Amino acid sequence: MLVLLAATKAALVAMFYMHLSSEKRTLAYIALTPAFLCVLLVFALLPDLGAFTRALTHTTPPPAEAHH
Amino acid sequence: MSHAAVAEHDFGLEPAESPLTPESWGKLGMWVFLAADAMSFGGLLAGYGALRYGDPTWPRPSSILGIQLTAVMTFLLICSSVTMVEALAAIRRGDRDRLERFLFLTILGGMIFLGLQAFEWNKLILHEGQSISRNNFGATFFILTGFHGCHVFGGVCFLSAILGRASRGVSGAIVVAMVAALATVGTLIVTSATFSGLVGIASAVAGGGVVFLVARLLRAPVGAYSAHHNTEVEIAALYCHFVDLIWILVFTFVYLV
Protein backbone atom coordinates (compact mmCIF):
# COMPACT_ATOMS: atom_id res chain seq x y z
CA MET A 1 0.00 0.00 0.00
CA LEU A 2 2.81 2.42 0.97
CA VAL A 3 4.76 1.53 -2.16
CA LEU A 4 1.65 2.14 -4.27
CA LEU A 5 1.13 5.55 -2.66
CA ALA A 6 4.80 6.47 -3.17
CA ALA A 7 4.69 5.37 -6.82
CA THR A 8 1.50 7.42 -7.36
CA LYS A 9 3.06 10.50 -5.78
CA ALA A 10 6.23 10.06 -7.85
CA ALA A 11 4.13 9.69 -11.03
CA LEU A 12 2.15 12.84 -10.19
CA VAL A 13 5.38 14.81 -9.64
CA ALA A 14 6.71 13.62 -13.01
CA MET A 15 3.45 14.29 -14.87
CA PHE A 16 2.53 17.70 -13.49
CA TYR A 17 5.52 19.34 -11.77
CA MET A 18 7.90 18.09 -14.49
CA HIS A 19 5.27 18.70 -17.20
CA LEU A 20 5.61 15.21 -18.65
CA SER A 21 1.86 15.08 -19.34
CA SER A 22 2.09 18.04 -21.70
CA GLU A 23 5.41 17.16 -23.38
CA LYS A 24 5.89 15.00 -26.46
CA ARG A 25 5.26 11.32 -25.89
CA THR A 26 8.83 10.33 -26.82
CA LEU A 27 10.06 12.25 -23.77
CA ALA A 28 7.78 10.13 -21.58
CA TYR A 29 9.34 7.02 -23.14
CA ILE A 30 12.80 8.34 -22.19
CA ALA A 31 11.59 8.91 -18.62
CA LEU A 32 9.94 5.48 -18.39
CA THR A 33 12.96 3.57 -19.72
CA PRO A 34 14.84 3.50 -16.36
CA ALA A 35 11.68 2.40 -14.54
CA PHE A 36 11.28 -0.50 -16.97
CA LEU A 37 14.97 -1.43 -16.69
CA CYS A 38 14.79 -1.32 -12.88
CA VAL A 39 11.88 -3.77 -12.87
CA LEU A 40 13.94 -6.07 -15.11
CA LEU A 41 16.90 -5.65 -12.73
CA VAL A 42 14.79 -6.66 -9.72
CA PHE A 43 13.65 -9.83 -11.53
CA ALA A 44 17.26 -10.54 -12.56
CA LEU A 45 18.33 -10.31 -8.91
CA LEU A 46 15.54 -12.53 -7.57
CA PRO A 47 17.38 -15.87 -7.99
CA ASP A 48 20.37 -14.53 -6.03
CA LEU A 49 18.50 -13.13 -3.05
CA GLY A 50 19.30 -15.76 -0.41
CA ALA A 51 22.68 -17.00 -1.63
CA PHE A 52 24.10 -13.54 -2.29
CA THR A 53 23.23 -12.21 1.14
CA ARG A 54 24.49 -15.33 2.93
CA ALA A 55 27.81 -15.02 1.10
CA LEU A 56 28.14 -11.38 2.19
CA THR A 57 27.13 -11.92 5.79
CA HIS A 58 29.00 -15.24 6.15
CA THR A 59 25.99 -16.87 7.70
CA THR A 60 25.58 -20.58 7.17
CA PRO A 61 22.53 -21.84 5.29
CA PRO A 62 19.99 -23.87 7.27
CA PRO A 63 21.02 -27.54 7.50
CA ALA A 64 19.53 -29.89 4.94
CA GLU A 65 17.09 -32.49 6.20
CA ALA A 66 18.75 -35.77 7.12
CA HIS A 67 17.92 -38.74 4.90
CA HIS A 68 16.55 -41.71 6.73
CA MET B 1 13.26 36.10 -46.34
CA SER B 2 14.66 34.68 -43.12
CA HIS B 3 18.25 33.46 -42.76
CA ALA B 4 17.08 29.85 -42.54
CA ALA B 5 15.03 30.19 -45.71
CA VAL B 6 17.97 31.78 -47.53
CA ALA B 7 20.24 28.95 -46.42
CA GLU B 8 17.76 26.35 -47.63
CA HIS B 9 17.28 28.09 -50.95
CA ASP B 10 20.96 28.58 -51.62
CA PHE B 11 22.38 25.30 -50.48
CA GLY B 12 19.44 22.92 -50.66
CA LEU B 13 19.76 22.03 -46.96
CA GLU B 14 17.10 19.99 -45.20
CA PRO B 15 15.27 21.94 -42.51
CA ALA B 16 16.45 20.99 -39.03
CA GLU B 17 14.50 18.14 -37.50
CA SER B 18 12.13 19.30 -34.79
CA PRO B 19 13.61 18.31 -31.39
CA LEU B 20 11.61 16.63 -28.64
CA THR B 21 11.84 19.84 -26.67
CA PRO B 22 11.49 22.53 -29.38
CA GLU B 23 12.28 25.42 -27.03
CA SER B 24 15.62 24.06 -25.83
CA TRP B 25 18.09 21.25 -26.47
CA GLY B 26 19.27 21.77 -22.89
CA LYS B 27 15.93 20.56 -21.61
CA LEU B 28 16.26 17.37 -23.63
CA GLY B 29 19.79 16.98 -22.27
CA MET B 30 18.50 17.32 -18.71
CA TRP B 31 15.85 14.66 -19.34
CA VAL B 32 18.45 12.24 -20.69
CA PHE B 33 20.68 12.98 -17.68
CA LEU B 34 17.78 12.40 -15.29
CA ALA B 35 16.96 9.08 -16.99
CA ALA B 36 20.58 7.97 -16.50
CA ASP B 37 20.56 9.23 -12.91
CA ALA B 38 17.29 7.40 -12.24
CA MET B 39 19.06 4.22 -13.35
CA SER B 40 21.76 4.86 -10.73
CA PHE B 41 19.16 5.20 -7.99
CA GLY B 42 17.23 2.25 -9.42
CA GLY B 43 20.34 0.07 -9.24
CA LEU B 44 21.00 1.13 -5.63
CA LEU B 45 17.38 0.51 -4.61
CA ALA B 46 17.31 -2.87 -6.38
CA GLY B 47 20.56 -3.83 -4.61
CA TYR B 48 19.05 -2.67 -1.31
CA GLY B 49 15.98 -4.83 -1.92
CA ALA B 50 18.05 -7.87 -2.88
CA LEU B 51 20.17 -7.61 0.28
CA ARG B 52 17.26 -6.84 2.56
CA TYR B 53 14.79 -9.50 1.49
CA GLY B 54 17.46 -12.19 1.38
CA ASP B 55 18.48 -11.50 4.98
CA PRO B 56 16.08 -12.70 7.70
CA THR B 57 18.10 -10.85 10.38
CA TRP B 58 17.60 -7.43 8.74
CA PRO B 59 16.49 -4.96 11.45
CA ARG B 60 13.15 -3.15 11.30
CA PRO B 61 13.95 0.36 10.01
CA SER B 62 11.57 2.03 12.48
CA SER B 63 13.48 0.48 15.41
CA ILE B 64 16.69 2.29 14.40
CA LEU B 65 15.77 5.25 12.21
CA GLY B 66 13.94 8.33 13.39
CA ILE B 67 10.83 8.29 11.20
CA GLN B 68 9.37 11.54 12.59
CA LEU B 69 12.45 13.61 11.79
CA THR B 70 12.63 12.09 8.31
CA ALA B 71 8.92 12.80 7.78
CA VAL B 72 9.69 16.47 8.50
CA MET B 73 12.59 16.33 6.02
CA THR B 74 10.28 14.79 3.41
CA PHE B 75 7.68 17.50 3.99
CA LEU B 76 10.43 20.12 3.63
CA LEU B 77 11.57 18.68 0.30
CA ILE B 78 7.98 18.53 -1.01
CA CYS B 79 7.52 22.18 0.05
CA SER B 80 10.71 23.13 -1.79
CA SER B 81 9.25 21.52 -4.91
CA VAL B 82 6.18 23.73 -4.53
CA THR B 83 8.31 26.87 -4.13
CA MET B 84 10.20 25.87 -7.29
CA VAL B 85 6.90 25.57 -9.17
CA GLU B 86 6.02 29.07 -7.91
CA ALA B 87 9.44 30.41 -9.00
CA LEU B 88 8.96 29.11 -12.55
CA ALA B 89 5.38 30.40 -12.69
CA ALA B 90 6.60 33.82 -11.50
CA ILE B 91 9.25 34.26 -14.20
CA ARG B 92 6.79 33.04 -16.86
CA ARG B 93 4.67 36.00 -15.82
CA GLY B 94 7.79 38.18 -15.96
CA ASP B 95 7.87 38.72 -12.18
CA ARG B 96 11.60 38.65 -11.31
CA ASP B 97 11.15 39.61 -7.66
CA ARG B 98 8.96 36.60 -6.96
CA LEU B 99 11.36 34.40 -8.96
CA GLU B 100 14.23 35.42 -6.66
CA ARG B 101 12.11 35.06 -3.53
CA PHE B 102 10.90 31.55 -4.35
CA LEU B 103 14.32 30.44 -5.61
CA PHE B 104 15.74 31.55 -2.28
CA LEU B 105 13.09 29.59 -0.37
CA THR B 106 13.86 26.49 -2.45
CA ILE B 107 17.60 26.83 -1.75
CA LEU B 108 16.88 27.33 1.96
CA GLY B 109 14.70 24.20 2.00
CA GLY B 110 17.55 22.17 0.47
CA MET B 111 20.06 23.52 3.00
CA ILE B 112 17.81 22.76 5.98
CA PHE B 113 17.21 19.27 4.57
CA LEU B 114 20.97 18.68 4.43
CA GLY B 115 21.43 20.09 7.96
CA LEU B 116 18.80 17.68 9.30
CA GLN B 117 20.38 14.80 7.40
CA ALA B 118 23.75 15.60 8.99
CA PHE B 119 22.01 15.62 12.39
CA GLU B 120 20.39 12.25 11.66
CA TRP B 121 23.70 10.72 10.53
CA ASN B 122 25.41 12.00 13.69
CA LYS B 123 22.74 10.45 15.87
CA LEU B 124 22.98 7.13 14.05
CA ILE B 125 26.78 6.97 14.03
CA LEU B 126 27.57 8.32 17.50
CA HIS B 127 24.56 7.18 19.54
CA GLU B 128 23.22 4.13 17.71
CA GLY B 129 26.63 2.76 16.70
CA GLN B 130 25.70 2.45 13.04
CA SER B 131 28.32 2.76 10.31
CA ILE B 132 28.78 2.08 6.63
CA SER B 133 31.00 -0.93 7.39
CA ARG B 134 29.09 -2.47 10.30
CA ASN B 135 26.52 -4.46 8.35
CA ASN B 136 24.49 -4.46 5.13
CA PHE B 137 21.82 -2.29 6.72
CA GLY B 138 24.37 0.46 7.46
CA ALA B 139 26.07 0.10 4.10
CA THR B 140 22.88 0.42 2.05
CA PHE B 141 21.40 3.13 4.28
CA PHE B 142 24.42 5.45 4.22
CA ILE B 143 25.10 4.90 0.51
CA LEU B 144 21.50 5.54 -0.54
CA THR B 145 20.84 8.56 1.67
CA GLY B 146 24.37 9.90 1.08
CA PHE B 147 24.00 9.64 -2.70
CA HIS B 148 20.68 11.48 -2.46
CA GLY B 149 22.21 14.08 -0.13
CA CYS B 150 24.92 14.73 -2.74
CA HIS B 151 22.14 15.37 -5.25
CA VAL B 152 20.48 17.85 -2.88
CA PHE B 153 23.84 19.60 -2.41
CA GLY B 154 24.22 19.76 -6.21
CA GLY B 155 20.68 21.16 -6.43
CA VAL B 156 21.47 23.87 -3.87
CA CYS B 157 24.52 24.94 -5.92
CA PHE B 158 22.60 24.71 -9.22
CA LEU B 159 19.67 26.81 -7.95
CA SER B 160 22.08 29.31 -6.38
CA ALA B 161 23.77 29.70 -9.76
CA ILE B 162 20.32 30.32 -11.31
CA LEU B 163 19.56 32.85 -8.54
CA GLY B 164 22.89 34.59 -9.16
CA ARG B 165 22.32 34.60 -12.91
CA ALA B 166 18.85 36.01 -12.39
CA SER B 167 20.53 38.87 -10.58
CA ARG B 168 23.66 39.48 -12.59
CA GLY B 169 24.61 37.11 -15.38
CA VAL B 170 27.40 34.55 -15.34
CA SER B 171 29.65 36.27 -12.77
CA GLY B 172 26.73 36.43 -10.33
CA ALA B 173 26.00 32.76 -10.96
CA ILE B 174 29.57 31.74 -10.08
CA VAL B 175 29.78 33.94 -6.98
CA VAL B 176 26.40 32.92 -5.52
CA ALA B 177 26.92 29.20 -6.26
CA MET B 178 30.29 29.31 -4.46
CA VAL B 179 28.77 31.14 -1.49
CA ALA B 180 25.94 28.58 -1.35
CA ALA B 181 28.38 25.66 -1.46
CA LEU B 182 30.45 27.17 1.37
CA ALA B 183 27.34 27.99 3.41
CA THR B 184 26.00 24.43 3.01
CA VAL B 185 29.31 22.84 3.97
CA GLY B 186 29.43 25.23 6.96
CA THR B 187 25.91 24.12 7.94
CA LEU B 188 26.97 20.47 7.83
CA ILE B 189 30.09 21.16 9.91
CA VAL B 190 28.17 23.17 12.52
CA THR B 191 25.48 20.48 12.75
CA SER B 192 28.10 17.75 13.10
CA ALA B 193 29.96 19.68 15.79
CA THR B 194 26.92 20.46 17.93
CA PHE B 195 24.85 17.31 17.30
CA SER B 196 21.73 19.44 17.30
CA GLY B 197 19.08 19.59 14.59
CA LEU B 198 17.92 23.02 15.75
CA VAL B 199 21.42 24.46 15.40
CA GLY B 200 21.53 22.87 11.94
CA ILE B 201 18.29 24.65 10.98
CA ALA B 202 19.55 27.95 12.41
CA SER B 203 22.85 27.75 10.55
CA ALA B 204 21.06 26.74 7.32
CA VAL B 205 18.78 29.78 7.65
CA ALA B 206 21.84 31.96 8.24
CA GLY B 207 23.63 30.39 5.25
CA GLY B 208 20.54 30.84 3.06
CA GLY B 209 20.34 34.47 4.16
CA VAL B 210 23.96 35.03 3.14
CA VAL B 211 23.27 33.49 -0.28
CA PHE B 212 20.22 35.70 -0.76
CA LEU B 213 22.03 38.84 0.33
CA VAL B 214 24.94 38.16 -2.03
CA ALA B 215 22.47 37.63 -4.86
CA ARG B 216 20.79 40.91 -3.93
CA LEU B 217 24.12 42.77 -3.74
CA LEU B 218 24.93 41.57 -7.25
CA ARG B 219 21.58 42.79 -8.52
CA ALA B 220 21.79 44.68 -11.79
CA PRO B 221 19.10 46.65 -13.67
CA VAL B 222 18.62 43.87 -16.21
CA GLY B 223 18.39 40.25 -15.10
CA ALA B 224 19.14 37.21 -17.22
CA TYR B 225 15.58 35.86 -17.24
CA SER B 226 12.28 37.18 -18.48
CA ALA B 227 8.81 35.96 -19.38
CA HIS B 228 10.17 34.83 -22.76
CA HIS B 229 13.59 33.60 -21.69
CA ASN B 230 13.39 31.22 -18.75
CA THR B 231 14.43 27.80 -20.04
CA GLU B 232 17.32 27.53 -17.59
CA VAL B 233 14.93 28.04 -14.69
CA GLU B 234 12.74 25.26 -16.10
CA ILE B 235 15.76 22.95 -16.46
CA ALA B 236 16.75 23.65 -12.83
CA ALA B 237 13.14 22.96 -11.80
CA LEU B 238 13.27 19.57 -13.55
CA TYR B 239 16.34 18.62 -11.51
CA CYS B 240 14.78 19.90 -8.28
CA HIS B 241 11.57 17.89 -8.81
CA PHE B 242 13.58 14.80 -9.70
CA VAL B 243 15.47 14.98 -6.39
CA ASP B 244 12.11 15.30 -4.61
CA LEU B 245 10.66 12.35 -6.56
CA ILE B 246 13.63 10.13 -5.74
CA TRP B 247 13.47 11.01 -2.05
CA ILE B 248 9.82 9.90 -1.90
CA LEU B 249 10.93 6.46 -3.13
CA VAL B 250 14.00 6.33 -0.86
CA PHE B 251 11.90 7.40 2.15
CA THR B 252 9.30 4.72 1.42
CA PHE B 253 11.67 1.82 0.76
CA VAL B 254 14.37 2.59 3.34
CA TYR B 255 12.37 4.11 6.21
CA LEU B 256 8.74 3.02 5.97
CA VAL B 257 8.50 -0.43 4.39
Folded structure, characterized:
The complex is a heterodimer of chains A (68) and B (257). With 68 residues, chain A is mostly helical. Chain A has a domain of 34 residues. Chain A is built from three helices and no strands. The longest helix of chain A is centred in the middle third of the chain and has 21 residues. Chain B has 257 residues and is mostly helical. Chain B has one domain: Four Helix Bundle (Hemerythrin (Met), subunit A) (Up-down Bundle), CATH 1.20.120. Chain B is built from eight helices and no strands. Chain B is globular, with a radius of gyration of 21 Å. The termini of chain B are far apart. The N terminus of chain B is likely disordered. Classes of the chains: A mainly alpha (68), B mainly alpha (257). Chains A and B meet through helix 1, helix 2 and helix 3 of A and helix 2, helix 4 and helix 8 of B.
Summarize the structure.
Chain A is mainly alpha-helical and 68 residues long. Chain A has 3 helices and no strands. Helix content of chain B is 80%, strand content 0%.
Secondary structure: number of strands of chain B = 0
Main beta sheet of chain A, described?
none
Contiguous helical run count of chain A: 3
Which word captures the global form of chain B? globular
What number is the mean pLDDT of chain B?
81
Globally, the shape of chain A reads elongated
Percent of residues in β-strands of chain B: under 5%
Distance between the termini of chain B: 63 Å
Helix-strand pattern of chain B: HHHHHHHH
Distinct helical segment count of chain B:
8
Q: What proportion of the residues of chain B is helical, as a percent range?
A: over 70%
